Amino acid sequence: SPDGQPSISVDSNLLRVPLDGSLSLDDMEKAFIEQVLDRTHYNVSAAARILGTTRQTLRYRIEKHHIEISD
Question: How confident is the model at residue 9, as a pLDDT?
Answer without folding.
Answer: 46
